[in-house]
């Protein structure tokens, strides 16, 4: 959105809404006159809608609240962190309207083709016309630049300095943005989940890799090179097992799901899931306890 004031207003509503016009003026620093004009334009555009009346104060007229219009636009999110690729269709409120699984690949052109081919299925299943699709978000494990268009480095995918967003956008014709998977989880929790009432917090993601992300005073903290929160390749066991990043003893060689199961297999444990390793440990199995420690 070209108008920074409109963007600021929409971000405030997304972050804290529904809000009255007076509350928006306080949160954005814009004048009440500016809020009135901008909100009128955004309602006309269909991005905002007036919702229920706020509880009236002791004096004066009750306030009409403004909220995002869920039908203004729809978005597709694609997680290419691990197999299979998971794709979801959401509305402007973040509600999931459809989901689809697809074959994983570390070839960027193949991933772009997978996303392109899945779009009609997701839209058709939810009855959404193609011209209402506003954007695509792609989440991966690795470093992403501040402009959210390039993967600087992903040990999991073997990618270095790849314009992933441009590849997907060229294949689909839809504006595309890239994000680190842990950052994406933290943003989802900030907007729609458990962290909605917190301005400073950290999230840790656990799967085939370990991820971490931070919000500081309401803003996603990326760090100078986009690697803030990147704990997977911190050395925590000097001289330990080789990691796919090229180092030894990274957290990713010890703590994620695949590392735990690899240790269980090496010790001959009858466990194919982390839950089964935990169950053995709870029963007092020394080797299972050792793995978890």
Q: Compute the average pLDDT.
A: 91
* Estimated helix fraction: 25-40%
Number of helices: 9
Overall morphology:
globular
Number of strands: 14
Could you tell me how far the N terminus lies from the C terminus, measured between alpha carbons in angstroms?
49 Å
- What portion of the residues fall into strands of 2 or more residues? 15-25%
Question: How do the strands of the widest beta sheet line up side by side?
Answer: 6-5-4-7-11
Largest sheet: 5 strands, mixed
Rg on CA atoms, Å: 22 Å
Topology as a string of helices (H) and strands (E): HEHHEEEEEHEEEEHEHEEEHHH
Poorly predicted runs are: none
- Structural category is alpha+beta
Structure in words:
The chain is of the alpha+beta class and 293 residues long. It has helices at 4-16, 21-28, 32-45, 108-126, 164-172, 181-192, 257-266, 274-282, 286-292; strands at 19-20, 48-53, 64-68, 74-79, 85-90, 96-102, 133-140, 143-144, 151-154, 159-162, 176-180, 201-206, 210-216, 219-221. The strands form four sheets. The chain has a five-stranded mixed β-sheet. Helix 4 (108-126) crosses helix 5 (164-172) and helix 8 crosses helix 9. The model has no long low-confidence stretch (mean pLDDT 91).
